[in-house]
Amino acid sequence: MQRGVLTLAAAAFFALPAFAEPAATPQDVFLTTQGEGQYLAKDLLLGAKVHNAEGAIVGDVEDLILDANNQVQGVIVGVGGFAGFGEKRIGVALPALQIKNESGVVIVSLPQATKATLDALPAFERKQPPKSLIDRAIEKAKELSDKSAVTAKDAYEKAKEEAGPALQRAEDAAKKTYEESVKPALEKAGEATKDAYDAAKDAMATKPAETTTPAETPAATPPAAEPSAPATTPAETPKETPPATTP
After folding, report:
1. What are the pLDDT digits (tens) for 33-85?
2. Residues 39/101, Cβ–Cβ less than 8 Å
3. What predicted TM-score, i.e. pTM, was given to this entire model?
4. CA distance 87 to 69
């Protein structure tokens, strides 16, 4: 019974709609859609293959160069090398790139990227050294920790707000179901069980005692007959000897 009530309560809880109002979104802070003329760096520049005037691939865009106003001034292109080894990273001004969208495919070109020019260019000089693998791992761990904390806190607050009314409604629904359906069924089942028990008890009290028939005594087996003595043959009677005659 208790399991059935809990099941009904859980079903009622999940069937109830959430009444929490969405949080207000600050104006001029978040962008919900991509506007006309806007593009995403990963879709257009980051990772894009750079072609020369002949259409051959000379490198790929690895990073963006921003100014103090966070405006893109140029890109970092990795050229030369093989499979990322021995690559040289050069800086290219953004206006020097030709970006075209041909049949849904973005093509980035640098007409001035001849082999002689690329070989003669010095590598791009960074003002700050790149982050080590350990630094990046620490930042990533902190990022995941912060995201998890925010997500868990938001989920807890939302559940806390919705739990009170929802649980009360679920409890009321379970109680109503119990009063209207479960309780009458249990009472009927109890009455039926009691009637069956009383009937069985009366039947046992009025039932006549059964007459027991003694078990038949098996017939005695006659004793085995003793073997008869073999017939005796009478001994032969000796012949009488005639008396001797006296002269």
Report:
1. 888 888 888 888 899 999 999 999 999 999 999 999 999 999 999 998 766 56
2. no
3. 0.46
4. 30
241: which strand partners?
none
Q: Using alpha carbons, select from 64, 66, 59 the residue that is nearest to residue 45.
A: 64
Q: How many residues does the chain have?
A: 247
3-state secondary structure of 194: helix
pLDDT value, residue 76: 94
189-221 exposure pattern, b = at least 16 Cβ within 10 A, e = fewer: eeeeeeeeeeeeeeeeeeeeeeeeeeeeeeeee
Tens of pLDDT along 147-162?
Answer: 777 677 777 777 777 6
Split at pLDDT 50, 70, 90, the class of 11 is low
Domains (range + CATH), the chain: 40-130 (2.30.30.240), 131-202 (no CATH)
Characterise 179 by phi-psi region: left (phi > 0), alpha (psi -120 to 50), beta (else): alpha
All residues at 6 or more sequence positions from 10 whose CB lies less than 8 Å from its CB, including other chains: 170
| 175: three-class secondary structure by DSSP | helix
